[in-house]
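Changelog entry

Holo records now carry the ligand SMILES as an explicit input line rather than a separate metadata file. Below, a converted record for ISJ, shown in the new format.
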Amino acid sequence: MSKFKQLYKPLLDNVQWETPLSLAIEGTEFGHWLLEPDSLSRRLQRHCDEFTVSLIEQKKIDSTMLSADERELIGDVNCLLRKVVLMGDGQPWVFARTLIPLSTLTGQESDLEQLGEMPLGFRVFTDSSARRDALEVANTGTQVQPLWARRSRLWINNKPLLVAELFLAQAPVYSKERQC
Ligand SMILES: C=C(O[C@@H]1C=C(C(=O)O)C=C[C@H]1O)C(=O)O
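Structure line, unchanged by the conversion:
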């Protein structure tokens, strides 16, 4: 899995995030994927027979490692960094990098550190308090061959986490058929 890390990490590190409005993605055939407010994992699962998560890396990082805008979104806090590839029928679909403040990993949420290869979305979106905001998008590819990414903040029991997702070339987001 380190090949994913080498390939995709730089793409998510240097993203210029923009508002969905400025990229005019609403109403496009892929826009509904990027704007999905509910669990992306659940949605991807509906498009394959076997949905799996490969855990690439998980480690604690110091607040000094966060970028200025990450600090603005989740605070100047030490975090658990989790990197995974979401796979549909063995194909890599989404590379995801999540920052979970250590202050979020408390009380009922202390189990988020032990997810392993269980999709984060399955855990977060079973909680009725879960919500998503601060959604931003970016095209890390070209106009002809887009490679979409999005970043959003999730809240669980009023505690934040920040998820950045890169939709890889084989993801259903690029399929021409109308999707549900
Ligand atoms: C946030 C969600 O969870 C997905 C699963 C992730 C994981 O297991 O680490 C990371 C990012 C998401 O794409 C979701 O389903 O919406």
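Spot-checked after migration. Residues 2-13 form the longest helix (12 residues). Residues 39-41, 53, 82, 84, 86, 94, 96, 98, 119-121, 163, 165 surround ISJ (CB under 6 Å).
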